[in-house]
Design brief:
By secondary structure, the protein is mostly beta strands. Helix content is 9%, strand content 53%. Strands 1-2-3-4-5-6-7-8-9-10 form a 10-stranded antiparallel barrel.
Length: 161
């Protein structure tokens, strides 16, 4: 004959598995691409005689699509194709400066209004960080070892209306 205890233990174990506080609770996962929608838009800054623009299309089809264009008043401009894509193993920032072959920067950290990508094997940059500032601007910082010396570059773009 089964006792009350023999019925109770399996029932408690089943409840623990179903409970959000149980041992098999789903692990907290990283962001979804939709969590990076704050990056979408046309952003621009004038730094002396140079205009720097970055454009990000909203997340769709498994990626955000972007481009960066730097146009000095004299001399040739520069461009970079960008994308942030959802892969099986996580979110990856992919940069193709000047249309060269792509370099991957996997997601390293994120928060409500910032995202950090890192590739410690790359020469420069090793880290790429975007942040939506309290004033609604898009701030970017790239950093890493450039020629044996730590270096960083930063931009703060205003939204183009």
């Amino acid at each position: 004959m089964k006792t009350a205890k023999s019925f109770l233990l399996p029932s408690l174990a089943a409840l623990a598995l179903l409970s959000p506080h149980g041992a098999t609770r789903r692990a907290v996962s990283g962001p979804e691409l939709a969590d990076l929608a704050w990056m979408a838009g046309h952003w621009s800054v004038e730094l002396g005689p140079t205009r720097i623009e970055e454009v990000w299309l909203a997340p769709a089809g498994g990626f955000l699509l972007g481009m960066n264009r730097t146009t000095p008043k004299s001399g040739p401009g520069q461009f970079e194709y960008l994308r942030i894509e959802q892969r099986k193993d996580g979110i990856v920032y992919v940069a193709s400066p000047g249309g060269r072959p792509p370099t991957d920067f996997p997601l390293a950290d994120f928060g409500q209004d910032f995202v950090l990508f890192a590739n410690p094997e790359h020469d420069f940059p090793k880290e790429i960080r975007y942040e939506l500032t309290k004033t609604g601007d898009l701030h970017a910082r790239v950093s890493g070892d450039a020629g044996g010396k730590e270096q960083a570059e930063e931009w703060t773009w205003k939204r183009v209306k």
